[in-house]
Amino acid sequence: MRVLVAPDKFAGTLTAVEAAEAIATGWRRRAPEDVLDLAPLSDGGPGFVDVLHAALGGDLLAVTVPGPHGAPTPATVLLVEGAAYVESAQACGLHLTGRQGAEAAGTAGVGHLLRAAVAAGARRIVVGLGGSGTNDGGAGLLSALGASADVRLDAGPLPLVDVTHVDLAPARALLDGVELVAASDVDATLTGLFGATRTFGPQKGIAEERLPVLDALLEQLAVAVDRRLALEKGAGAAGGLGFALLALGARREPGIGLVADAVGLAARAAAADLVLTGEGAFDFSSRTGKVPAGVAEVAAAALRPCVALAGRVDVGAREMRALGVESAYGMVDVVGEKRSFADPAGSLADLAERVARSWSS
């Protein structure tokens, strides 16, 4: 059989590259004659630059930027034929905040990455959004690009309580002539019940009673900048970084679609007999914008079955098939939760070996 292995990262345990290799290791133990094509993916979150570098080549520009709490943080910009690819999580990711201090965390580092891309001569900048530990509506990014306001924009969301005016002219001038693309993994708006704060705030360590307060702060920023943009899909991506990029004229694209095109996923799926995908938690959030949904869509277009391997599976058969996934298997169900976290690569390999028994002809 020809098997395409196209997983996302398993958040907190395995990168997409490591996940693909673990699946391949287990699969080969059961079906050594099968031909495996490894295509690790990203939806715009952590791993975005590494995946694209492997697929597109290009040069990695090393830079040091302010982290979410101001500490010097190493990051990279991928430069490919006049285009630059930036991974916002490198400058403001959850791994940098430790799921703490989101109310004081900022996104200035992402703005510095854009500055580095412009200085390197990029005429197109693609910003991968996802995995952020911040919730400032992109105010820090705007400040780093030269925007000003009647409050500080680079000190997290709390100062936004008094914001009434934001001058974006300097930031827009800096990006004049640059095509800006926001590659997001979610459709969330900036504010409201399904906005950045209420949807993703808890996983960033924001207490339940603080969610309405921080949502109101982002609403204040939206009124000062452009209330209509706050309602756009993707405005709430990465704690509102999507909103800031839209305000600077960015075009929003689903991150998985952009990466899938870059790695030639459609042609590779058509050449396979079976498509495997996966992520840490295969649940209801996998329905839109995430790697498994994107891979399943590509597999369906190629008339190939798609199977998901995950850390845990929290959807039923009906929901799974609505996503275009034939079957889904969880590491926790096979080896238990303790071993899944203690040895994620080995556990995923064991799961893949078991799945191969059912799916390799």
Present the secondary structure layout.
Blueprint: E1 2-5, H1 16-30, E2 35-38, H2 48-56, E3 59-66, E4 72-80, E5 83-87, H3 89-92, H4 94-97, H5 108-119, E6 124-129, H6 139-144, E7 148-149, E8 166-167, H7 169-174, E9 179-184, H8 196-200, H9 211-225, H10 241-247, E10 251-254, H11 255-262, H12 265-270, E11 274-282, H13 291-301, E12 306-313, H14 317-322, E13 327-330, H15 331-335, H16 337-342, H17 344-359
Parallel strand pairs: 1-2, 1-11, 5-6, 6-9, 9-10, 11-12, 12-13
Antiparallel strand pairs: 3-4, 4-5, 7-8
Helix pairs in contact: 1-17
Keywords: Kinase, Transferase
GO molecular function: glycerate kinase activity
Pfam family, one: Gly_kinase
Note down, in words, how this protein is organized.
It comes from Nocardioides bruguierae. Belongs to the glycerate kinase type-1 family. The chain has 361 residues and is an alpha/beta fold. It has 2 domains: 2-41 and 264-359, Rossmann fold (3-Layer(aba) Sandwich); 48-256, Glycerate kinase, domain 2 (Alpha-Beta Complex). Helix content is 39%, strand content 20%. The chain is built from 17 helices and 13 strands. The protein has a 6-stranded mixed sheet with strand order 3-4-5-6-9-10, sandwiched between helices. A 5-stranded parallel sheet has the order 2-1-11-12-13. It has a two-stranded antiparallel ribbon with strand order 7-8. Helix 14 (317-322) links the parallel strand 12 (306-313) and strand 13 (327-330). Helix 1 crosses helix 17. The longest helix has 16 residues, at 344-359. 52% of the residues are buried.
